[in-house]
Amino acid sequence: MPIPADWPTTEAEALAEQQRLRPLVEPHGTIGTAPDDRLIAGVDVAYDDERDLVVAAAVVLDRTTLAVVEEATATGRVAFPYLPGLLAFRELPAVLDALAALTHRPGTVVCDGYGLAHPRRLGLASHLGVLTGLRTFGVAKTPFTFDHHAPGPARGDRTPLTDPVTGEEVGRAVRTRPGVKPVFVSVGHRIGLTEAVDATLALTPRYRLPETTRHADSLCRRALARQQLRLRQGN
Questions:
Q1: How far apart are CA 227 and CA 50, in angstroms?
Q2: Which of these, 9, 98, 107, 169, could form a disulfide with 160 (CB 3.0-4.6 Å)?
Q3: What's the rounded Cα separation, in Å, for the pair 213 and 163?
């Protein structure tokens, strides 16, 4: 998996690319009933920074049954240094390759991270959506730099996630399990915030995190472990 030749390599280039892509985000839309809309994918990545290695996973589920339909992984070199707010530039080349390896095209992709809940309103989910044209949203484990009040204790309770500088609602804190800390949902591309929250709740019938994320996280960790073992055996 080669890193794209025109991929940003400096902080200044990455910031400029985020500013260029931000106006292309469509922060509205619904999940329809077309055949592709029956399929929803999760993507995630795992790193071995010592070996300059990243593994991405894409797992497609049936949106109704949550059964796994297809899995794919991609392995390559880390594409960008670790800089807060620019993680998409580390992860996206591998994620794009994993998605390209699928034979089933999902109608929606769920990212383990942020969309519009980002300082420049272009987190991984939004960036991925603009590059691919896919419907995307992010479900994060933490609120990043944004403010929120704790939602009520019941499953489905939610409160706004807001930018402390502008007061803008950039996402929602959503309780997916009673009495368990919330997740943080934000629009990626071609979906509205209410629709993204509803989809998150549909993907969390038993656990705090969406089934898409759980499967993708497990797959990329297993694939990384296999790659590390092969490298050790080759030394």
A1: 13
A2: 169
A3: 25
Only one residue has tokens 């797959």, namely 219
Phi, then psi, of 42 in degrees rounded to 5: -115, 145
67-78: b (≥16 Cβ within 10 Å) or e: eebebbbbbbeb
How many other C-beta atoms are found inside a 10 Å radius of the C-beta of residue 153?
11
What gap in Å lies between CA 85 and CA 135, rounded to an integer? 21
Backbone angles phi, psi at 206, to 5 degrees: -130, -25
Q: Which residues pair with 208 in a beta bridge?
A: none
CA distance 13 to 203: 36
pLDDT by residue for the chain (235 residues), tens digit each?
Answer: 567 778 999 999 999 999 999 999 999 999 988 888 999 999 999 999 888 899 999 999 999 999 999 999 999 999 899 999 999 999 999 999 999 999 999 999 999 999 999 999 999 999 999 999 999 999 999 999 999 999 999 999 999 999 999 999 999 999 999 999 999 999 999 999 999 999 999 999 999 999 999 999 999 999 999 999 888 887 6
Q: Cβ-count burial of 146 within 10 angstroms (0-12 exposed, 13-18 middle, 19+ buried)?
A: buried
Q: Note the pTM of the prediction, 2 decimals.
A: 0.95
